[in-house]
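ok so for the tutorial part 2 we go from a plain amino acid sequence to predicted structure tokens. step 1 is just haveing the sequence, like this:
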Amino acid sequence: MEYAISVTDTSKVNDIEKHGLKVIEVLEDYTNSLKKLTSFEAPRGIVFHDLKSATELYSDIPIPAYTSRDLIHMSPDPSVWKELFLSTVDGEMERVKTYYASTDILDVAAIAAHELTHHADFFHDDFEGDDVNMWFEEGLCEYIPRKLLFSEEKFNDTVEVEKMLIQHYKDQFGEYCLSEFGKAGYRYGEENGLSGAFYDYWRSKKIVKVLVEDYFDDQLSSLIACYKQWDQSMPLHKYFTEVLALSTDEAKKLWLT
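step 2 — the prediction. this is what the tokens look like for a chain of 257 residues:
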């Protein structure tokens, strides 16, 4: 994959490139795995940034990973992501702190893989500006890279940590339907820090995991096939509620109503 580097602090160029090349190495393996699941049109390339370049110079999005104009933009530095993740930890959450303190290049590569997965051909359309259905694309883009890249132990650790974070923040942010994806974070102008921004990513990935494991016999391809049959005549969360014949209580537990 072609890459470029943009930094506001030129002393960081060598480290940014070193981390970026490691991310690309992991992405190459991920690309081969993703091709077994779906076709996709690869982005033109990836721009590696320091934090200020990603979140202030090129964008005002507080998370230094996004796709713009068919280019992936991100900080490849694990220490940057470690600090960002640790900033979401509130109180005596030692299990979560320990997990995020060990953030490494594989975690960063999974973030880059999230952006790459947005290019998968099975997605119906570009959900930009369509927050009602955005939860599913974001949930899949969170779930698939970690399922394909992480060991079973690391994947389960991630699930457990995010489950703890969801439980911790649900009283503060609410358990609204994920058709309101981003309600707790910057998309709605809320100033809840990165915990608010990440809250619905954690919840969306959890829904995708439950759908795959409990409703589609642990077959990701079956969930995708069901999704592809959606004719967009109703919001996606209502489609899944109907096609899976979910009760009101079941749908509420999945944040689909």
